[in-house]
Design goal:
The protein has 160 residues and is an all-beta fold. It has no helices and nine strands. A nine-stranded antiparallel β-sheet has the order 1-2-3-4-5-6-7-8-9, with no helix packed on it.
């Protein structure tokens, strides 16, 4: 469980193209997973390309990670590539896939693949659901995630 604030700093315009948009996302991760304790922090820079029928996001960031029953905080490196494809016949539905990784100090790199859908709901709220699978022994075998995104003051898709 987490709460994040995303701020779009640069928009390349409504036509999209090869000049990326830039945003930051910062927030807190609450200790709800097995083996975690204490409040952790994560922050990332997000470069986004809004192409004609595809959106691509590249994320790079870091944070903190605390293990249960240990009193030390370790650094965390995170990255990911996200592809978002709107379905033409269902204008408010998107297919989303993500390859991501994270590395905690002195641990093996954790790789994951995610696949799911995003629904652009009413009142500036998006809903998402996805399943994910780990790609190595350090990763979670299988899991699911759900999310809610509130848009305040701006339209979706990085356009004003």
């Amino acid at each position: 469980t987490a709460a994040f604030y995303k701020k779009v700093w640069w928009r390349s315009g409504e036509n999209g193209g090869w000049i990326p948009n830039f945003a930051t996302e910062t927030g807190f991760v609450f200790p709800t997973e097995k083996g975690t304790a204490g409040l952790d922090f994560e922050g990332a820079g997000i470069f986004s390309w809004y192409l004609e029928k595809l959106t691509c996001h590249l994320t790079l960031g870091g944070g903190t990670k605390r293990e249960a029953f240990e009193h030390n905080t370790q650094g965390l490196f995170i990255y990911g590539i996200i592809l978002d494809v709107p379905l033409p016949q269902y204008i408010k539905l998107h297919l989303v896939s993500e390859y991501s990784g994270e590395k905690v100090e002195n641990a093996i790199l954790d790789h994951q693949l995610l696949g799911g859908v995003v629904w652009e709901g009413p009142l500036g709220i998006d809903y998402d659901i996805a399943g994910f699978a780990g790609l190595n022994s350090e990763s979670v075998d299988l899991g699911a995630t759900v999310g809610i995104t509130f848009f305040i003051g701006k339209k979706r898709g990085g356009k004003t």
